[in-house]
Amino acid sequence: MIDDDDAQRPLPVVLKPVDDELLSSWLERHAAYYGVSGPFFAKWLMLGTRNLSLLDHRLGLTQVARLSEKLRCDPIALIAMTFIDTPARSAELICRNRAPQICRSCAERHAREGASGAVPKHWRKVWRITCPACGAPLSDTNERPDAGETLRDTSPFARVWKEAVAGEAIIERFLQGDVSFDYSPIALMRALLVHTWRPCGANGREPAAGWALGAIFPEFDNLARPIKRRINHAAVAALPISLRPALLAGVARTIASPAILDAVRDETSLRGRRAFERLCETARLEAQTTKESH
Ligand SMILES: [Zn+2]
Fold it and tell me: What is the mean pLDDT of residues 231-235?
């Protein structure tokens, strides 16, 4: 337990973070260790907020100073545990709430090493389908842990797993400053989620909802239709994780042969076509700007 007398001193025990651990996860584990709630711990640390997860996205200098003193850690290392240095173009690709994915083998290892419940940063990144720490396919957090299944088993797009992994690597390379791309893969992710209409619905008369990505993987449209409000180019992070391999495989294919973009464009209509063209142009310009800034 911690009390007011401790408020001016560093914590007596500081837990070792796991690889790539998210700041809020590390702080929550300290709260649990000292037997207090997260909000209570935040208040005791005098961080000016009771919401630890806010710190993953916004961390002021006073908070950095306070945390590095209380937890006896390097301010730079502390900042690296957050998403505050994330380039603006990828900020929307970070899930703000609960992590949608988990690496079961790393989670088991954390538990064995006394860091049960630790959350690494990549469990919040919407372009990840494999674990950078151990290489295993990630699992949907909603899947029962005892089933031992990963996305590679549960996704309806498991058949394009290899291409999806290639898409994941492309996005990582782009974010790390690889300037060899003609199109920004991040902007392409948005472009492929543009909503459009297909000429014939199930009954052959009314137009049916579709997405640009459906021109590459036709089954995407059928799977996306029942949850169409969640599938939107302005909110890539809202795409259910089971459909993520399709999006990443679509990115890998269009990066490998950009001519596919013309074919996809021809299958979009009305506002969808305009939005798709605009986003493809953005993808081209973003890649060019990245090249020029290096
Ligand atoms: Zn792992």
Answer: 92
**Which one-letter DSSP state was computed for residue 136?**
P
- Look at residue 64 in the predicted model and tell me its pLDDT: 97
The yes-or-no verdict on residue 2 having pLDDT over 80 is no
Mean pLDDT computed over every residue of the chain: 93
Centre of ligand 1 to C-alpha 38, Å, is 26
pLDDT digits (tens, 9 = 90+) for 177-222: 999 999 999 999 999 999 999 887 556 677 889 999 999 999 999 9
Residue 241 CA, ligand 1 centroid: distance in Å: 17
- Single out the residue of 194, 198, 217, 218 nearest to residue 208, CA to CA: 198
The 3-state DSSP class for residue 209 equals strand
- Give the helix ranges, DSSP H, for the chain: 23-33, 38-44, 61-70, 75-80, 88-91, 104-112, 151-154, 161-175, 185-192, 218-224, 244-256, 260-266, 270-292
135 alpha carbon – ligand 1 mean position (Å): 6
Distance 269 CA to ligand 1 centre (A): 42
Is the distance from CB of 29 to CB of 118 less than 8 angstroms?
A: yes
Q: How many helices (H) and strands (E) does the chain have?
A: 13, 4
Q: Taking ligand 1, which is a single-atom ion, which protein residues have CB atoms under 5 Å away?
A: 103, 106, 131, 133-134, 136
